[in-house]
Specification:
This protein is mainly alpha-helical. The chain has six helices and no strands. It is globular, with a radius of gyration of 16 Å. Belongs to the MntP (TC 9.B.29) family. Probably functions as a manganese efflux pump.
């Protein structure tokens, strides 16, 4: 029972870290005075992508795990570190963000862009043998709620919060990657 609670807490923290980019981009998009119906649709779409992308990653990770064992586990930890560093680096870069309209194809591109990192994490979790349904449930719900929170909060606050939240998410993923590598060395 304690192991299950620990796994749930770990997955929720990872889901929170992965949802930070959706939250931060949602802050900026929320300033467009979107209607509540649009906000609802954007959140659901992001949530679905945060289910679909790690599912593909999990399946590929389990396949790699069976083939490559411990080596694949080390690669999974390195992926989390690279992803965390990338998120921190992206939050530091200024003036390179492009605005995508959150409708139609723009919404799909937006959803894909903020959920690509969940594919890599899903790959790592698949290598470590995480419970698929639990991962997908945590990632999907947390990403949806964080997207809604970002869009709604974006209507109220300035955009400066966005870069800090993405850096925090990157730091959390970096810490998990270092922890996983520490277990092997």
């Amino acid at each position: 029972m304690t192991a299950m609670v620990g796994e749930i807490v770990t997955l929720l923290i990872m889901a929170f870290a992965l949802g930070m980019d959706a939250f931060s981009v949602g802050l900026g998009m929320g300033m467009y005075k979107l209607r509540m119906r649009q906000i609802f649709k954007i959140g659901i779409t992001i949530g679905l992508f945060h289910v679909w992308m790690p599912l593909v990653g999990l399946l590929m990770g389990k396949l790699l795990s069976e083939k490559f064992g411990t080596f694949a586990s080390i690669i999974g930890g390195l992926l989390l570190i690279i992803l965390g560093v990338n998120m921190i680096w992206a939050s530091v870069k200024k003036g390179e963000e492009k605005i995508i309209t959150p409708t139609g194809m723009g919404l799909l591109i937006f959803a894909l862009s903020v959920s690509l990192d969940s594919f890599s994490v899903g790959l790592s979790l698949g290598i470590f043998g995480a419970k698929t349904a639990l991962v997908l449930l945590c990632f999907g719900i947390v990403a949806t709620v964080q997207t809604w929170a970002g869009l709604l909060l974006g209507r109220k606050v300035q955009a400066w919060i966005g870069s800090y939240s993405e850096a925090l998410g990157g730091a959390i993923l970096l810490a998990f990657g270092l922890k996983l590598l520490y277990l092997f060395f």
